[in-house]
Design goal:
mainly alpha; elongated; 90% helix
């Protein structure tokens, strides 16, 4: 079962964090430089409309496979290493930030775009940009902790 759980877990994280990194670091600067607010905000509403369902799938897979591994392999929270706890906690923070983005500023962005209220849409996009930037950073840290935590723990142990 680990042969299925680990790859699903990693693929889901790569889709989510990689998507955020691409959107924040590559797509955002080009869209901001080349598109006027109506086109830019419409683009982002569409991009998020395509990306966010993948994030929901990623969350289900990350949480499901992570909890399965936690209890079936590591014997629960008590039996797992500190880096596993850190990865789990950071993942929960990321999920909470995403849910806030999805249910608050993204919802308002869609309404603003539908109403062609570009200043209101720009305000929501700015909030999303900040939160996605924070989540991208947390995601990269979580990837480092998850992939290197075992080795870092060995270095500090002796």
């Amino acid at each position: 079962m680990m042969g299925i759980a680990v790859p699903l877990h990693v693929i889901a994280v790569v889709v989510w964090v990689g998507g955020m990194f691409f959107a924040h670091q590559c797509l955002r600067p080009v869209a901001a430089a080349q598109l006027e607010p109506p086109a830019r905000l419409t683009l982002w509403a569409g991009v998020f409309g395509r990306f966010f369902p993948w994030v929901w799938v990623s969350i289900v897979l990350v949480l499901g496979t992570g909890l399965w591994m936690m209890f079936a392999v590591f014997g629960g929270f008590k039996g797992s290493a500190m880096y596993i706890h850190a990865m789990f906690g950071l993942g929960l923070v990321m999920m909470a930030i995403f849910m806030h983005v999805f249910f608050a500023p993204y919802k308002r962005l869609k309404k603003a775009v539908a109403a062609q209220d570009w200043p209101a849409g720009g305000k929501q996009l700015a909030q999303i940009r900040m939160l996605v930037g924070i989540n991208t950073l947390i995601g990269l840290i979580t990837l480092a902790v998850g992939s290197g935590g075992r080795y870092l723990a060995m270095l500090t142990a002796g």
